[in-house]
Specification:
- The chain is α/β, with parallel strands linked by helices and about 350 residues long.
- The chain folds into two domains: about 170 residues, Rossmann fold (3-Layer(aba) Sandwich), CATH 3.40.50; about 160 residues, Glycogen Phosphorylase B (Rossmann fold).
- It is built from twelve helices and 13 strands.
- The protein has a seven-stranded parallel sheet with strand order 3-2-1-4-5-6-7, with helices on both faces.
């Protein structure tokens, strides 16, 4: 197949540090190319890919002018290259000129879904556009609008080596954007209750810097460490050396790729039952899904080495790169059959 993949223009594919969606696009592009499909990636000009790269001329999804330029670029490439289908991970606005055309189109959501946008796109596409999302939790509110497919995110297993036993001194880990809704302050509370060391890693968004300085910085000491953003190599070492990944989130997480990354290393996930956490983490098998800090701290004491083997096995079955590619190829087949 000749497939066009699109990414948002702000970050390269793959990203250097933070950028979950861009990692999935990179994973998919490499796996599709490995299987012999012709893949063209429309993305940030600094992207490094085995697919053929077409750089976006516009660099901001929030700019109306850049959106028009990027939509025109995608339309030009579709007309020139005669793709079999277009798979968009970027803004749905980039598809607007393509919607009336019969070419099959898949819009994949990894962020909150706008009912208004999908209503409009569904009407304009005359059935040539279908949708996918990365969790059942995301699909349920919009399932009646259009045709939806579930394809979870995944990880490259080779990037995250399995660690069967991180040892008795293994710390707890929090990895993600360091802001209130992600719960790093609650991870600190869990560490205090258990007496275990905690490593906090991730970027502090500029708009949350004051919160970090007021809430997290004063608690950093010999037990609680903040190490900043980490690249893929550092991330794999950090997660593999962890006793557990803490996910005390205070928002409805649409997927949380870090959970799959941790479990690939054999590291169980301990999280609150918000958003997709109960879908990704099999309670009592690859971690524990609970309510409240006290229950999270109690779950730390219930961890056994068998949870590490089960965590890796769950990723191998459901969240490996091959599973992601298989899922999307199945959807592509349905799209082409429907065209």
């Amino acid at each position: 197949m000749r497939i066009a993949l699109t990414a948002d223009p702000e970050l390269p594919v793959p990203p250097l540090l933070y950028g979950g969606i861009e990692r999935i696009i990179d994973l998919l592009a490499r796996e599709l190319t490995r299987r012999g499909h012709g893949v063209t990636l429309l993305a940030h000009p600094d992207s490094r890919t085995e697919a053929e790269l077409v750089p976006w001329p516009g660099r901001s999804s929030r700019s109306r002018a850049d959106t028009v330029r990027n939509a025109a670029t995608l339309l030009r490439e579709v007309r020139r290259r005669r793709f079999d289908l277009v798979h968009s991970f970027s803004r749905i606005a980039y598809l607007l000129p393509l919607l009336p055309l019969p070419i099959p189109k898949l819009m994949s959501y990894q962020r909150p879904i706008s009912h208004r946008s999908i209503h409009l796109a569904q009407a304009l596409s005359r059935g040539s556009l279908q949708f996918s999302a990365i969790s059942r939790w995301m699909i349920e509110p919009v399932a009646a609008i259009g045709h939806w497919h579930l394809v979870p995110n995944g990880v490259e297993l080779a990037t995250y080596p399995f660690v069967a036993d991180p040892g008795p001194m293994a710390p707890l880990v929090f990895l993600g954007r360091v802001e209130a809704i992600k719960g790093p302050h609650l991870a600190i509370e869990v560490a205090r209750r258990t007496g275990l060391p905690l490593v906090i890693a991730g970027n502090v968004p500029l708009e949350h810097q004051d919160w970090f300085e007021a809430t997290i910085s004063p608690q950093l000491d010999e037990q609680i460490a903040y190490i900043g953003p980490v690249d893929d190599t550092q991330k794999a070492i950090l997660l593999g050396s962890a006793r557990a990944l803490l996910m005390p989130i205070l928002w409805e997480e649409p997927f949380g790729i870090v959970m799959a990354e941790a479990m690939a290393c054999g590291t169980p996930v301990l999280g609150f039952a918000r958003g997709v956490v109960p879908e990704v983490v099999e309670h009592g098998v690859s971690g524990f899904v609970v309510e409240g800090v006290e229950a999270l701290a109690e779950a730390v004491g219930r961890l056994e080495l068998r949870h590490r083997r089960a965590s890796r096995g769950r990723v191998e079955r459901l969240y490996a790169a091959e599973a992601v590619a298989d899922g999307y190829l199945k959807v592509y087949g349905l799209l082409l059959a429907h065209a």
